[in-house]
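Sharing in case it's useful to others searching the archive later.

Someone asked me privately for the predicted structure of Centromere protein X, so I'm posting the question and my answer publicly. Question first, with the sequence:
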Amino acid sequence: MEEIGAGFRKELVSKLLHLHFKDDKTKVSGDALQLTAELLKIFVVEAAIRSIRQAQAEDLAQVDVEQLEKVLPQLLLDF
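And my answer, the predicted structure tokens:
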């Protein structure tokens, strides 16, 4: 199965992770970076889908930050 669409680069994921590590010597394997990038991609896609559904429920033609803010609490609990 071929992957379609954009994702997160390993370099970006690595920088994001290292920003929150307490020890600068902490290392992350390539597999862990790939899995984290995939998780981030799934999270972002799910947030977009839920925001679209929220906008549709409100009979809006365009998704705004307000719809994302409404779905974000439940999204965070689900992840």
